[in-house]
Structures are given as C-alpha cells and as structure tokens.
Amino acid sequence: MKDSIIILCGGGPAPGMNTVVFSVAKTFLSNGYRVIGLHGGYSGLFSKAPRTEDIDFFKADAYFNRGGSYLQMSRFKPTDKDFEENFNLDLFQSNNIKLLVTVGGDDTASTANRIAKFLEAKHYPIRNIHVPKTIDNDLPLPENAPTFGFNSAKNEGAHLARTVYEDARTSGNWLIISAMGRSAGHLALGIGEATHCPMTIIPEMFNKTEITLDKIVRLALSAIIKRNILGIPYGTVVVAEGVFHDLDPQEIKNAGVSMTYDEHGHPELGKISKAVLFNDILEKEFKKIGLKVKTRPVEIGYDVRCQDPIAFDLTYCSELAMGAYELFSKGETGCMVYVDAFGTAHPLYLKDLQGPDGKIPPRRVAIEGGTAQNYFNHICHFIGEADYEAAKKYVADPAAYDFRKILNW
Question: What is the model's pTM?
C-alpha cells in the first residue's frame, strides 16, 4: 500500500485555502504519495465515519487557484475525552497515513499542538505539520511575515473601503466601517492606511489605558471634529472588531447586545453588525453634544474571506505547501511551516510557540512600530492641544477629544 498523507482545514476560510491544500496535494503526488482530503476539520479525526476523498492531479489542478475551501471546514475543538476515547487511529492505519497536514489560524494551530503532543505520547508513527492561515494576520511568524490570506483580504477590504470613502466624499457624509480581526487589528490598520482613512481604531491602541466604549466613541469624534475644523465635512472611520472583543462584557450588554460564544470561548462577533452597533452609539452621542453629522454603517468581513487569492497569496501558498513537503522529507513534525523572504522553509515548533495555557498566542500589531506610528502621526486627523480653541465651536470640553490624552500616549 502506498504511503499516504491526509489534509484538513480548521476555523474560517481565507483566500488561499485551496491553493495550500491542492499545492500540498500536487507536491506529494509528484513524489509518489497518495493524498487524502478530510472534510469537517478536526471533527473528522474523532469520528468513526469521517468523510474523506482522494485528491488526484486533475482535482488539484482545477481548484488550486479558487477562493473558498473545497475541503469543508469546522471550528470543532476536541476535548480531552475525545483524545482518549474517540481518536480515529484506524483511519491512519488502514490508509497507511504518515503525515497529517493541518491548515488554519491560532485555534487550529493550538489544537495541532495538542495533537503533536498526543501522537508523541502514544508513540504513533504519524507526523503533523501546520500551515498558518488567517486574514487576521495574528500568528507569531518571524520577521513580521504574513499569514496567508491576509494580503488578499486586505486587498479586497481596501477596494471596498476606497469605494466607501468615495461615497463619503461625494455625499458629504461619514461612513463607519467595521473590519474583521478578533484578536488583532492588522486587517483594519492595513485597510485604514491603504485608503488614507482619517481614523482607524484597533485594540492595540489601548496599550496604556483600559479600552471602553466611551473612549472608542471619543476617538471617532476626535477625527470628525478635526475634519470639521479643517473644512472637510466627510470621511471614514475604520474600527477593528477586536475592540469589541476586548471590551468588558458588561459594556457590551449595556449597549443592548446579547452575545453568544463559540467552542473556543470567543464571542461570536460575526452574529452582530459591529458597524451598526457603533454607528448607533455614535448617533446617540451626536444628539447629546448637538453635532450635526450623518453617518452610515458598513461591514467588511465575510465578503473578503472566500474571494480568489491575489498573486501574492497564490505564490506564497504554493511555497508554504512545498515547504511542508521539504520539512516532512527532513523528518520534521509538531511544527508550523514558515517560509522566509527567499522562499526557504523553516520549522517553527508548536511547543516553542505556546503560551502558559498551551495555546498559541496571537500576534498583535506592533503599536510602537513605524507602520502604526507613522500612520497615526501623518495620515490620521484628530484633536490635539493646538485645536482646542477651534474645537470649542463643536464641543464644550475639547480636551476630552484629544487623541493622545484619550489613549494616554
């Protein structure tokens, strides 16, 4: 029987999922392996009747450059009981599977780490390699290397935000944009910088103060008031959904939102419109302070996850897939594949990346770094001390809307 590998995809989709899966397939097929696709993410590993299918060259060649994920994904998180009682060892033994390739973000990587420890403890002759995916760009790769999917999502997000900004300019309104990013603001900041948005609000900004709804509102108003002073009666505000993730749950409840949680304990932010929520809160504040501004909410999220990958991700995902084979051929396991700027693959051992809780911690925006600081210092518009006198036309206490004072920067 041929040696085989099996591939699964966890979490939510990102541009390049199919490129990774089918580039892995092409690479291993060309080296004499049988390639099996596993549907249902990790749930398939702990099921007595997993849904699998063989991947041949023709299938791989037809789907490698498409958006979405041919292999059905899942956020299934196995319990300790699942590992001890439900792990489908027969799936691996009956198919002579030598390698498990997992594709996903931080939660999928954390489960891959648990699987690596489990396989080692059981002395099962199965290796596992993880491929880092997420439009959030929040896996801890060296030298600020992106996760695949991020650049394609940013490209489409910026396209949408450019259109929205032009609508704001044309109509003389403000558009409030919410961008995906559960734990980090990379996508929101990338969209804000690419479109010269006058204010982008991400969770990392609150590195010197507690994050509250009141501060988020005052940051948005800081940009709106500053632009009014400058005679620019329009603009956009980009808000990363992560700011709502980091809020005290009581604040969310006080805003009238009932939150549910996924299998990993994260608030299911996709079930509510953060743009609508924030826009409603802003409108109430406008009435309170007597500011006449018209705003409209826009959500950027699910519409950027399943698009066709741009050329960057097509090549990057292909390199990651070939890198997975290179690491496997060298005997590596329990690692995440990292491809450097020259296309050379390196192993990042999951056990070395884990935090005290065993999970892979997210990489957040380097808020003190040049990308963030230059954007806030040179592109954004906000109230500073020099604007206080002019701002009194709009608010009684301009210092309350001072960008740097709000953040304690």
Answer: 0.91
